[in-house]
Design goal:
Low-confidence stretches: none
Number of helices: 6
Number of domains: 2
Structural class: alpha/beta
Helix content: 10-25%
Bound molecules: flavin-adenine dinucleotide
Length: 235
Amino acid sequence: MGKGLNGLLTKAWGGSDYRITVTASEYITDKFLRIGFTAGGLLADHPVHPTQWVRCWIPVDDGDKLHQRGYTLVDQDPDKDHFFIDFAIHDGPAARWAQQASVGDELEVTVLGSDFQLPETKPSEYLIFGDTASLPAVNSLLDAIGDTPARIWLEWQYETDQKIPVHTNSHHELTWVQRIEDGKLLREAAHELTCPTDAFAWIACDGPTTRSVVKTFKQVHGLPKSAMKYQAYWK
Ligand SMILES: Cc1cc2nc3c(=O)[nH]c(=O)nc-3n(C[C@H](O)[C@H](O)[C@H](O)COP(=O)(O)OP(=O)(O)OC[C@H]3O[C@@H](n4cnc5c(N)ncnc54)[C@H](O)[C@@H]3O)c2cc1C
């Protein structure tokens, strides 16, 4: 199966390709599946950093093309050439691939565009917006910021979502909100929060919610673009 135009583009932009192999599969909840992979040398070439992600090439059921989907690396172990990926389950090809994957199955991945680093000047607080798709990235961010205060808003779709471990400590305040009306409660939370002038906002939800929350940080709270990192994680 081919990668089509997207494959040519990621190559042209300098993406590096790897083949990863399933080592294990474990349901964290009924809608959140952790799969272990040998890294195919990826971690030797690309140092671990918070929110590190790869472009997975997923076979789509009714075509002969591989489609690209972003996924976050979890518990990376460069010495063992191993990492995990947590799949939030919904009705889509990548989620279906994960549910059917067994030990020994292979997946092609490309590394391109994953380069987030914590801000050089420590913010007084992190303000984090996400959902179960970005929860693996949120957890890596929380691990990296340590004792810096953070408020985190996460959107849940299934009752069991709130059982997924979140790496908070006593400096962090977590609020789960239900996904209703395409992210309404996250958008409201962004409006209502108090935002210190030296905060850093990290936002990764579905596309429209991400755009709306970012706009609120800019226009309502006056946060400069340099104090934000945002990316739509799904459409
Ligand atoms: C940098 C980056 C890192 C990411 N890391 C992760 C990760 O670690 N774990 C993870 O689970 N996802 C992660 N995502 C999100 C993931 O790439 C998308 O959810 C992707 O669309 C899933 O592809 P799919 O083929 O299963 O579904 P698609 O073919 O893209 O979509 C099929 C249908 O499912 C819906 N859908 C897609 N994603 C979701 C969702 N999360 N919740 C509800 N409905 C959805 C779509 O609206 C559509 O109706 C990441 C995305 C990016 C950009």
